[in-house]
Design a protein that fits this description.
The chain has strands spanning 4-5, 10-11, 15-18, 22-23, 28-29, 34-35, 40-41, 46-47, 52-53, 58-59, 64-65, 69-71, 76-77, 82-83, 111-113, 118-119, 124-125, 129-131, 136-137, 142-143, 151-154, 159-164, 170-173, 184-187, 193-197, 200-203, 217-220. With 221 residues, the protein is mainly beta.
Length: 221
C-alpha cells in the first residue's frame, strides 16, 4: 500500500496521491491535484494544478496534463500526449503591456476523459470536449471535438473510423459511403457484445466488475 515517488520528482503541497501509486523520475505535479490508487505517472510528465485523476490510470513518459482536465478510472495516456485548455491563447494582453496570468479565467476550458479510454502516443487533445468511455484515440491524432463512447478515432483532425471493445480490439468499421442503419450487432473475440445504431454504441453485456477503489490517500507536503 506504499506510494512510490522518485527522488527527482517534484510533488507540490496539497497533492493527494492514492495507495500503490508510482510517480517516476523528473515528474512535476502541481498543487491541488488528486491522483487515485494504483496509478503510474511516467518519467518527465507534468501535471498542472487541480487536475483530477481517478484510479488505475497509466500516464506514460513526457505527458503534459493542464489545468481543467479530469481523467476517470482506468484511462491510458500514452507517451508524448499534450492536453490544452485555451482555444485562442495569447501570452500578453492586447496592448502587450501585461503578461496574462496562468490562473484559470474566462478563457480556460475543460476536458473530460471518461473511464477506460486510451489516448495513443503523440496525441494533442483540444479543450471543451469529452473523450468517451472506452474510446480509443490513435497515435498522433489531433482531437478537436468530443469522441463518443467506444469509438476509434484517428487523424488530424481526429475522425471516427470504427468501434472498439472494452478490451481494445476493433469490432466494427464505419463505412464512409453508407451510414449505419441500425441496430447492428457486433461481437468481439473476447465475447463481449455491442449494438451499433448510427454513431451510437450500446453494450449488450458488460463485465461484472467495478472500477471504484477505496479512497485511501496520502497527502504530499
Amino acid at each position: 500500500m506504499a506510494v512510490r515517488i522518485h527522488p527527482t520528482a517534484i510533488v507540490e503541497a496539497d497533492v493527494s496521491v492514492g495507495k500503490n501509486t508510482s510517480i517516476w523520475d523528473n515528474v512535476h505535479v502541481r498543487y491541488g491535484t488528486s491522483i487515485g490508487d494504483e496509478c503510474i505517472v511516467g518519467g518527465k510528465s507534468i501535471i498542472a494544478y487541480e487536475v483530477q485523476i481517478g484510479h488505475r490510470v497509466k500516464i506514460n513518459s513526457n505527458v503534459y496534463i493542464c489545468n481543467g482536465v479530469t481523467i476517470e478510472d482506468g484511462v491510458m495516456i500514452s507517451a508524448g500526449t499534450i492536453f490544452t485548455n485555451d482555444r485562442f491563447p495569447r501570452a500578453a494582453t492586447s496592448d502587450l503591456r501585461e503578461l496574462r496570468c496562468s490562473e484559470p479565467d474566462e478563457h480556460t476550458l475543460t476536458t473530460q476523459v471518461r473511464e477506460g479510454a486510451t489516448i495513443g502516443a503523440g496525441c494533442i487533445v483540444g479543450c471543451d470536449l469529452t473523450i468517451g468511455r472506452f474510446a480509443m484515440v490513435g497515435m498522433g491524432s489531433v482531437v478537436t471535438k468530443s469522441v463518443p463512447d467506444f469509438h476509434l478515432v484517428i487523424g488530424s483532425p481526429a475522425k471516427s473510423v470504427g468501434v472498439v471493445c472494452r478490451c481494445g480490439q476493433p469490432v466494427h468499421r464505419f463505412n464512409e459511403a453508407t451510414e449505419v442503419i441500425g441496430p447492428v450487432p457486433a461481437t468481439c473475440e473476447c465475447g463481449l457484445a455491442y449494438e451499433i445504431d448510427g454513431q451510437n454504441v450500446a453494450e449488450l453485456c458488460s463485465p461484472d466488475v467495478s472500477l471504484e477503489a477505496a479512497s485511501s490517500t496520502v497527502t504530499a507536503h
